[in-house]
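Entry 14. Ran structure prediction on the chain below.
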Amino acid sequence: MPQHALRRALTATLTAVGALALGLAAPAAHAAEPLPYAALGDSYSAATGVSPTDSTSPLCLRSTANYPHVIASRLGAALTDVTCGGAQTKDITAAQYPGVGPQLNAVTASTRLVTLTIGGNDENTFIGALLACGSAGIATAGLGSPCKTLYGSTFDDKIDASVYPAVRSALQAIRAKAPQARVAILGYPWIVPAKAVSGCFVKLPIASGDVPYLRALQAHLNTVVARAAAETGSTFVDLAGVSNGHDACQAAGTRWVEPVLFGSGAAPAHPNTLGETKMADQTLSTLGLG
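Output, structure tokens:
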């Protein structure tokens, strides 16, 4: 074989061997699929009143700055957000409004992460208690414990009899539909401080003796949510410790929840942008994802 022909043959052989070696050493890279994430829940999940508003579902008063969006952004997850202001546990499996279907529709067998807050609107329990206590507090100019006197254990009894089993059933339905998903249900961050704070009555018109009454009621609600989570193999995201000192009586920039009066940036008695971010932080930390 002529020398130049031999040279061409050797070059072609080495090129082919090199290409084969490169292919074995560095297979084609495939981009990781984004985590399928479904966000369910009530106005604490929807971040009602926080800008910017999600225009795709005006009835739900949902924000695109809610904690699910924060989580999805940090994880690079594929988010399906069906959170909705005013949602009760029944709205997990039934339509909340015309055109707003059951939230469970967002959950599929391929879903790998589900988050929600739910239960506070059931039986008009916690928000109803807050409004009732506010009315009673105004009537007594902030003195005594008129709400506790009027309602006693009524709200607590509703939590045990109705809210707890409803939350448990909702979590069971979610886990049945997405058995491979991690399901995280958040507690509610503190709305009221542990005891009456000077100057807060103007922003949160709760009588001084009813402040610990409402605090205990919220603690009870969070306790049954945690219990329902444990019984269904779900993860409870406890916000009691981290939200302490960030209640609605605190100054702007410190509070995570807005007061009933003279607040800014969110619906009354609901998390603001800072609160939603902190809820996302605690969720990611609890799940070991942040």
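Confidence is low (pLDDT under 50) at residues 1-29. Will compare against last week's run tomorrow.
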